[in-house]
Structures are given as C-alpha cells and as structure tokens.
Amino acid sequence: ASGARVPALVIGTGYGGSVAALRLAQAGVDVHMIEMGMAWDTPGPDGKIFCSTLEPDHRSYWLRTRTKAPLNYFLGFPIDRNISRYTGILDAEDFSGITVYQGRGVGGGSLVNGGMAVTPKRENFAAVLPSVNADEMYNVYYPRANAGLGVGTIDPAWFDSTPCYQYSRVGRKHAQRSGFPFVFVPDVYDWDYMKQEAAGTAPKSALAGEILYGNNHGKKSLQKTYIAQARATGKVTISPLHKVTSVAPAAGGGYTVVIDQLNTNGDTAATKTVIADRVFFAAGSVGTSKLLVKLKATGALPHLNDEVGKGWGDNGNVMCGRANHLWDPTGKLQSTIPCSGIDNWAAGGAFAEVAPLPTGIETYASFYLSITKNPHRAQFSWNAATGQVDLNWQTAWKQPSIDMAKSIFDKINAKEGTIYRTDLFGVYKIWGDHLTYHPLGGAVLNKATDNYGRLTAYPGLYVIDGSLIPGNTSVNPFVTITALAERNIEKIIATDL
Ligand code: FAD
Question: Tens digits of per-residue pLDDT, 459-472?
Fold first, then answer.
C-alpha cells in the first residue's frame, strides 16, 4: 500500500531478484518484490497460462500490436502477425542498432528462456568476472546456484533414440566430422517430464513447440524454484503489474520508491510511494541500467559514479541456419529445449548451441544460436529531449560475432557440401545479427558498484542482476547471474544487516 515502510524492496523478479528475496527472507528480513510484468499464474480462456509459439496471441508480447519474432521470416515470407496490445510476456525492446529480448512477469527471463543452464568453463572465468574469486565461485556459489535452479542434463541413451532430438544428432554428426567438440548443454527443463511427453503420458510443452512465450509444463522457471521457496518462508510479498520509476533518499532515512501500478494496456492506473530501508536493483541489465542512468541524470541519485550505464554487451549473440541435404532430415518433431552445443571458444571465439526450428514440418535445416567473444561494449545515456535512456550499440558491431560463428559453420559447410539458409531473417539474409537474448552489464561489478554490488554513494542501495556482468559470460548467462547473486547476498547479509 502507498505510504508503507518496508525493510527490503526488490525491483524485479528475475534471477538476481529471486535469489536476493529468498536469502533475505531466510535471514529473517521481510521482503517486498515489485514486478512490472504480470503474475502468470492464471489460465486464459483456452485453459492455458501461456500461448503457443506458432499461434501467438495478446499474451505473447509486451505492449505491441504486432509480434516481433526473433526468427521473423520463413522460406522468405514474413511470419509476424497482428495482436492486441497487452502486458504480454516477451519484451522485444528496440534500441538503435539492436533489439533486446527480455521476459516480463514474475520470474523475469526464466518465463521465456530456453532454460539452458551453463556454467562457464573454469579457464574462461577470469575474463567473465575479473574481480571475483574463482575458487569460491566454483566451490560454493556455482554449485549452490545449480542446485537452487534444478539444473539437469539429458539422459544420453534417450538422446540417442528419441525422434525429438534428431536435429541435435545431425548437429553432433556435422560438428564431429569437422573436428569440433560436441557437448551436452544442461537445462532446467524436467528431463523426466520430457520423456513422458514423448511417451504420450503427460501434457506436452517442449514437444508442443512451446518456447519464447512461456512453457505450460516441464520447465522449472523461477516460479517453481527460488520464488516458490521464497514465498514458502511467509516473508516475501510480490506486486505484479507494478513498475518502479524512482528511488531517492528519504528525509528520515531509507529511500523513497515511486511505483506506477499498470493495467493490462500498460497504462498507469495509480502511483504509489513506499519507503524502503534497502533497495535491491534486480530489473535486469536493461531495466536496472535505465533506472540508474535516469536517476543519476535527473538528480534523484546524483552521486552514483560515472561507471553507471557503461560496459554493456550482447554476449556476442548471433543466429544462423544451414541447409542440409535431403538425406539429412532434422525431424518434424523437435523439442524446443536445446540440449547440445559446439564448443569452439578457445580456437574461434564461438560457442554454438544446436537450436530447434520447431515448425512441425521437416525443414532440412540446422539452426544455431552462437555466443561469441564480441569485444564491443555499449553505453546507456540519458536523453533529456526524449525523456528516454538510449543505448549506443551499432549493428556493424556484430561483425566480429559473425566472423567467430563462421569459424564453425564455414568449416562445416565446406566439409558437408552445404550452404547457409538465407530465408530465416529476411530476404536473402544469412545472419540474425539484429538482436540479443543476453543483455549484460550497465552497472558493472567493482566499477559502478563495489565488489559485492553495493552502490557505495548510497548505503542500502544494491545492484544484484545481470547488469553487474561486464558484457559476456562465454556461455548462456543465467547460471552465472544466479551464482553471483548468491555470492553477493551472502556477503551483504553477513556484513550489512
Ligand atoms: P531478468 O530475468 O530480466 O529479470 C528482471 C525483471 O525485472 C523482469 O521480470 C522485468 O519485467 C522486471 N523489471 C524491469 N524493470 C522494472 C521496473 N522498473 N520495475 C519493476 N520491475 C521491473 N539465458 C540462459 O542462461 N539460458 C537460456 O537458455 C536463455 N534463453 C533465453 C531466451 C530468451 C528468449 C531470452 C529473452 C533470454 C534468454 N536467456 C537465457 C537470458 C536470461 O533469461 C537472462 O540473462 C536472465 O533472465 C537475466 O536475469 P536478471 O536477473 O538479470 O533479469
């Protein structure tokens, strides 16, 4: 309620926010979580909470009147369609030069993502988080995060036999024939449940093409893991459809937090003010960066340091498809949950996931999301004229990512006598270089904050999400975001409370 005073307020309910809420609650602190997206706990008229990927409706996108599918063409035809404007689950947020996909709702990115739960190789960690003790991370916090998230790996025997991973087996064959290491990628999807889907004994989600707009079954999103545990403490409350717009020091101590209550059109229905002793920024790399840059520039938090807004990267995301020969079908039933990748990080700067194209028809295509060692970093800045926060990323900055991905796929194409698909991202366009799923940075650890996420100019303000990570994790990011949050909140609870 407006005017309330809370000991700890968490902005956002993704990985960082959920870890903070659970551990604070276990330490005896009452926590209030503020989430701009919906609760996603109530079925719609079709009996399902989430809409399907092939039939997106109003639930699919955050305040758009037309879908903006990451893979927006097929056989040269655009596949986007009109939808009614609604506080849907996937935000395709446009900045100059890049579209940043993010989850909106209680659970943040865990609602929409592929669940790939990858711990970086130890030898790459110093480049991921240079100021963090690797021994502690690999001995304590990565294991804690993997346990909390419910990470598992596919049964290799089932992998070898199930039709729904034929596309991955084709990916393995092609990778190995070109001499690349093929690796299984862990995931938070319930692998036993997926076997039941395949056997026809449970309602289908991964095998019904569900991804991007939520999974109705099988995926252990944060709602089922950290947030469920946090709620069970009885000390955590969550306000969905509430968006934080300001945080500023309060006269009597603590911070005044201004919050807009939204309706499902995205309009402000009410504005509330709460006083919080401590505020945890967990609005995601983009959300936290936008808030901090605006609050510094507009005088609410003028003493934030000059690193705020800097060091943002796209985790080197780039996508592409290859056209296989007719004797190499990838299968018309494809699990939406990727389970494998091609590791050419050390030699070529690319880690490519073998991704599904769950169209329900045989496509003879192999599809990949590559994570690459892209060196470019962008900066968020306040635009007083528009009242918005801009990001100065340039589309041309994806070229190093394309070159690194080509270190894998040019070689495979040469070996297999195959070519790139040119019909997936436009008319004659090979590379999906217009987007990222993995925004990272903007409030970098040990630069914008101290080495535990404290915004030291303002005691009681913390950053605890992907904005702490300086732009690249060498693999998919959420396990690292979770592990870093576990590390930081443990220190904060031990020393600051
Ligand atoms: P988020 O999870 O983004 O959570 C931030 C939350 O804050 C959101 O719920 C947001 O609505 C809310 N918020 C923002 N601003 C405000 C505000 N002002 N007031 C209130 N609430 C606010 N990563 C992997 O590791 N593996 C994958 O397989 C994978 N697949 C992906 C697929 C897709 C389609 C997408 C979009 C992402 C994927 N990711 C994947 C990335 C991963 O989901 C993110 O890295 C992760 O969710 C970031 O965690 P976070 O805690 O930093 O923020």
Answer: 999 999 999 999 99
